[in-house]
């Protein structure tokens, strides 16, 4: 998870201008200020970065950064363009 978490953290700080000091594993996407449109954009960015297809339902405001990173790891382990159940 460290590489995935670091990449996710980089996306959050770079694309969404979330301050680095507020990103931690237990922070929810909602706490980081990501609302509906931003969550959709996050899914698209992560799809491009990790070459996996993420179910839109998975990018929910109450998901934590750690949960998203773990989900990405599971998708990557399953193979490219895989949709994992939410």
UniProtKB/TrEMBL annotation:
Source taxon at top rank: Bacteria
The UniProt entry, under SUPFAM superfamilies, shows: ACP-like
Q: Which Gene3D superfamilies match?
A: ACP-like
Protein name per the record = Acyl carrier protein
UniProt organism field: Streptomyces halstedii
Q: Where is the Carrier domain?
A: 1-76
- UniProt xrefs under Pfam families: PP-binding
Listed InterPro entries: ACP-like_sf, PP-bd_ACP
């Amino acid at each position: 998870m460290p590489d995935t978490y670091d990449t996710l953290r980089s996306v959050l700080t770079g694309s969404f201008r979330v301050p680095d000091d507020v990103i931690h594993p237990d922070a929810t996407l909602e706490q980081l200020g990501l609302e509906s449109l931003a969550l959709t954009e996050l899914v698209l960015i992560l799809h491009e970065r990790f070459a996996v297809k993420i179910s839109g339902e998975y990018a929910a405001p109450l998901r934590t950064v750690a949960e998203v990173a773990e989900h990405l790891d599971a998708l990557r382990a399953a193979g490219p363009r895989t949709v994992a159940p939410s």
